[in-house]
Amino acid sequence: MNTTDKLDRILRRDAAEELPDAGFAARVLMELPPPRPRRAAGLDPFLVAGSAALGSLLAVAFAPSEANVVQGMIDLFQRQMLTPAAYASIGLSATLLVSAVLLAREG
Amino acid sequence: MSSDGAASDAELIVAVLERDDRRAFARLVERHQSRVRTVLRRLTKGDMALADDLAQETFVLAWRNLASFRFEARFSTWIYRIAFNAWQSEARKRREVAMDLDDEAPPEGSESYEEMPDIVSRMDLERAMAALSDGERAAIAACYYADLSHEEASEALGMPLGTVKTHVMRAKAKLKARLAQKEPT
Questions:
Q1: Between residues A91 and B100, which one has the greater pLDDT?
Q2: What is the pTM of this model?
Q3: Could you give the CA distance from residue B55 to residue B57 in angstroms, rounded to a whole number?
Q4: Residues of chain B with C-beta less than 8 angstroms from the C-beta of A34
């Protein structure tokens, strides 16, 4: 047997020697961050959708009378971007878009 | 899927990612701790306490970053990369790690390999490994103890492939020469 084989064998035999765990895995587990708080399965989509619906309702309820969402859509369609109603529509659309993206990611 | 001994590494990782399953992670640690600790013991020149601290840090980092694990790679290759990084960071804290090539030649008598014994003690091997440069020791640890290919070692150590091969060649010449001077045990 040549010396390269011999050295390879010595190194691989040393590497293959099994070290007993001796509590090592338990010590690692103790160092892990605390478990994530558990939420009921499937709750997240309802939270996102509920928050979006509530936000939309509040936006519509408290928006100034001239910031009517339907009027905003009409304004946007007529390329009148700077009216309060147009701003309200853009905000509402953005909220719903973000909710849709979050729900899609959950799915 | 269960987190028992028959589950593959990939199945255990999925259990951790999907269910925060700590028993599954414990199985991964139990499965890989021996090799990771051995690699780190050789890298730290036999400092067992430091090696175990670094191994613990390695597995905690693996837990934190498990979501970035790519399933086309072996988990062992991935965890060794973390272990090498942990060792390099620790070594840099103490002093600069010289991972590039040095011009140090193998010791005198490195050509008379015929005297190398069939069996060497762990102590002699540790001493011989400790005499290597950081780069040479890292290359041997990666290619023999972590059982990585030269390409995988190059990636794990952040060294060019040619440097890994040269380190391995020089390290083996030095080890042969040093071990040849020892009496069989």
A1: A91
A2: 0.69
A3: 5
A4: none
